[in-house]
Structures are given as C-alpha cells and as structure tokens.
TrEMBL record:
Alphabetized UniProt keyword annotations: Acyltransferase, Transferase
Similarity remark: Belongs to the thiolase-like superfamily. Beta-ketoacyl-ACP synthases family.
GO annotation terms (biological process): fatty acid biosynthetic process
Keyword match Transferase: yes
Domain Ketosynthase family 3 (KS3): 2-403
This enzyme's EC code(s): 2.3.1.179
Protein name: 3-oxoacyl-[acyl-carrier-protein] synthase II
C-alpha cells in the first residue's frame, strides 16, 4: 500500500461485553460467552452468544434493528478513542463503510410474523428503514453528519474485514481523510439458527454451551451463533499525525480473493486464503517470516479449521506465528467477525499480549502443528500480525496490521 493507514480508534460491542475494555478482559480470561438462549428453545440448537442487555438508552433507539444499535454504540467509542469530534471535522472528507451479512434480519423476521398472524395493519412503518442492509451505514452517517461516501459491504462472514479494505481503498484514492470502518450483525434469530443448524454448521453441545465453541480442537463440532459489532477508525497516517493522534497500529496491507469453488465450503487446499495472505504481505512489504501472530478465522467447524490450519502450516514452515481465535469466547458474530477480530488484532499489538483460544485442549490430525495460544494470555512482542476472515460464497480477506514503529 502506498499510503500507510493509521488505526486511531476502536469500538466494540460483543458477547464478551460492551466496550473495548470488557471485551478484551473476557478474551484474555478465556471466558466463553455462550449460554442457553430461551428465544431458541423451539429450534434444533438452543444456545447462542448474545450481546449483554444494554442499559436504558435514548428512546429513539426503538427504531433501529439491534445490528444498527450495536453500530451506533461502538462508533461512539471509536470516535472517543481517536479523539475525534464530528463537529470539528469536514463532513465531506469522512467515509462510512459498514459490513453486514444479513442487515436487519431480526426486524424482518419479527415483522413477517406479525404480517402472518395479525395482518398488514400491524406492521411497523420503520420495517424497511430498520432491516434494509444499507441502512446501518445510512443511519451512522446521519448520526455523525457525514456527507462523504457511505456504503455497505456484504461478503458473508468476511463483511467486516471487507469494509476495512474498502475504507483503505477510499483513503488511498483521496476520497476521504477519515473512514469509519465497521462490521455489525444480529443474526441470533430462530430462522438463522435453524438454517445454520440445517447446514450442519452449529455445535450441538446444548448441554454445555460454555464448552461448545472449540476452534482447532480435536472435539470441535461446529460454531456457536453470535452477534455484535466492531469499529475501526482509519486515517491516512499523515492526517493522523498532523492532528496529533497516536496510532494504535498501522493497517499496512490487505488481500481479497474468491475461491470459485463451492457456495459454503472453503477451497480444500485453501487456495483463496493463501493468495489473500500473500497479497496482504506484499502490500505490507513483508514476507511470511515477518509475521508474529495470526488472529485466525477459526470457526470451530471441521472443514474451516482444517483448511486454515493447512494453509498456516504451509506458509510458515520456518517460523510459525502464534495463533488465536476469538470465537472460542465470542462465538461466530457473522458479518461483524472480521471487524471485531481486526480490532482484537490491533489490541494484541498494542498490549503486547495474545489472548488464548478458549476450549482448545488438543488438535486432531488436521489441525496439528500450529502454535495455538491456549489456557492463558501470552505476553509477546507483535510487530506484524494478520487477521483472517472467510465467508460463504468463497470470500477470503486478510488484513495485515503492524506496530506503529514498524518499517
């Protein structure tokens, strides 16, 4: 990348807690958020990773789908972290890019049930503004007074990472000076849970939900459905430095590829992930031996973890990086995962600490050979780290983050 992109602010709303601090604490403690979920008791899987109930907020929030509420909360934290005030910026030089896999699907399900049971007269007039996929970005732009580019990206579970890539491209093209890049989803709904269960993607450990999400573990049997939002405040580094901001990390490279293999299964040899990784490293001016840490996609499914592990083993034979997956604690937050895990990668660099992969005890033959961080946080100097994101449709996105002093 010709222009180094500074990460100057982070915001998180996750099953681990509302805010960067609570989420990071949960991850470092390796404390899984999965619980039995009464809203899913009539379905094939009865557990989830939900965002903790919010404190009472402004009355206007009833208009928004939970995915948009998560976004508005996380964005405010990211702005405060970056020391930015919307009243002080040029709104035409700010972009909003939000990734989502399903938009306001919870609103759509709820209003459809009303239509079927009570007729069209009871539908909320806010149905379309609440569930249309573009409206999270639109509502955030409205909230912040942003008049620059505002758009939504949707690459399934890679959506949040794709939003960060898109934001980088807008910054590099000179279309903005500041970009709010995010991923948000609230897909813990009866329809989504049942559909994922039908695909065989969800863990069936309903009797012990806290042990269900087991990335890379020999006993993994699927993911736990989660929800949440991650926000990264991105700026061209000269812009950030000019206003006195101290970057948390630099987004130095990115790679995006498509498998062109199968609607839901990754390429068996991980060709797309491999290519995306090499593109991200090329953008960062780095080679595999420079990578200190990988925040893996690590879904806890048989297929994903095996393919991802094979790619990591192949690309880093001489100097294996440490590997962690946040999904052991947070579950799979769908379109939010790429942004949440990118933020966790930045925190790993900033704190010099790699959080553990919850519930990992031992690998099987397909996941052996990785340096999995487990049981406790690992103090580690991380100069260059990668964040992997994969999604249905064969989407692969890899983000390369470096310490601010990295050259």
């Amino acid at each position: 990348m010709s222009d180094r992109i500074a990460v100057t602010g982070l915001g998180l709303v996750t099953p681990g807690g509302t805010g960067v601090g609570p989420t990071w604490k949960s991850l470092c403690a390796g404390r899984p958020a999965a619980r039995s979920d009464p809203a899913l008791y009539d379905g094939p899987v009865t557990m989830s990773c939900r965002v903790p109930p919010p404190d009472a907020g402004p009355g206007r929030l009833w208009r928004f789908d939970p995915a948009t509420r998560f976004l508005l909360t996380a964005a405010q934290e990211a702005l405060a972290c970056a020391g930015l005030e919307p009243a002080e910026w040029d709104p035409a030089r700010v972009a909003v890019v939000v990734g989502t896999a399903a938009g306001g699907v919870g609103t759509l399900e709820a209003q459809h049930r009303k239509l079927l049971t009570a007729g069209h007269g009871v539908l909320s007039p806010m149905t379309l503004p609440a569930f249309l996929p573009n409206m999270a970005a639109g509502q955030l732009a409205l909230e912040l007074g942003v008049t620059g580019p505002s758009l939504q990206t949707s690459t399934a579970c890679a959506s949040g990472a794709t939003a960060a890539v898109t934001a980088c491209l807008l910054l590099a093209a000179g279309a903005c000076d500041i970009a709010v890049a995010a991923g948000t989803d609230a897909m813990v709904t009866p329809l989504c849970a049942s559909a994922f269960a039908k695909l065989g993607a969800l863990s069936r450990r309903d009797h012990e939900p806290e042990r269900a999400s087991r990335p890379f573990d020999k006993d993994r049997d699927g993911f736990v459905l989660g929800e949440g939002c991650g926000v990264l405040l991105l700026e061209r580094e000269p812009h950030a430095r000019a206003r006195g901001a101290v970057p948390l990390a630099l987004l130095t490279g990115h790679g995006s590829t498509s498998d062109a293999h199968h609607p839901t299964a990754p390429h068996p040899e991980g060709a797309g992930l491999r290519a995306a990784t090499m593109a991200a490293l090329a953008g960062a001016g780095a080679c595999p031996d420079d990578v200190d840490h990988i925040n893996a996609h690590g879904t806890s499914t048989r297929l994903n973890d095996a393919v991802e592990a094979a790619v990591i083993r192949d690309l880093y034979p001489r100097r294996p990086p440490s590997v962690t997956s946040a999904k052991g604690v947070l579950g799979h937050t769908m379109g939010a995962a790429g942004a949440i895990e990118a933020a966790v990668t930045v925190l790993t660099i900033a704190h010099g600490t790699a959080p553990p992969t919850a519930n990992f005890s031992a690998p099987d033959d397909t996941t052996a050979g990785l340096d999995i961080v487990t049981r406790a946080p690992r103090p580690q100097t991380v100069r260059l780290a990668l964040s992997h994101s994969l999604g249905f449709g064969g989407h692969n996105t890899v983000l390369a983050f470096a310490a601010p002093s990295y050259t």
